[in-house]
Specification:
The chain has helices at residues 3-24, 31-56, 59-86, 95-102, 104-113, 115-121, 123-149, 152-179. By secondary structure, it is mainly α. It has two domains: 3-56, no CATH class; 61-179, Four Helix Bundle (Hemerythrin (Met), subunit A) (Up-down Bundle). It is flat and about 70 Å long.
Amino acid sequence: MKLKHVGYLLITISFLGGSLEVVKQVEGVNTAVFLLWLGIGITGVIVAQRARKAEATDVEVISTNIRAIETSLEKISSDAQELNAEKLTINVYDLRHWIDERFPEALKTFVDARESMAHSFGLKAYAEVMNRFAGGERALHRVWSASTDGYIDETHAYIEKAAVHFEDALTTFREIKARGPAVTEA
């Protein structure tokens, strides 16, 4: 069991124990016992946070995540370009299904790995990529919603915007990656 999971387990036990303590008596709460449960919960939060930070800054995890970020951005950008190229041949009401079939896995991979950009390249680089990615994601969500409502002109306009934003995010990430890791001062 990972240390992070031990922390989550302590938080859960603390919540359940504290809740039981509160409802156990009709009047009043045994403050000492309640504070003990609270202390266990706080310990769980600290353990989980430290484990999460150690995991997030592990060199192997960062390296794997950087590869995952680039691969997922390549897939997202490619799918957005393909959708843009095929938008006139796809029924407006089917666009949302096309999005649901092609994008979720790569989007989840990117989101799960994105923090490694900040650890590897710094917050400024992270913000540059995330700003472009978020624009693409918002446009893609807008396409999905407009597809549901049957607004063909809006779907076509936002498909193009999504493709541009995702391509921008990929290009920006590659430029940042080519510059190399951020140098931190000690």
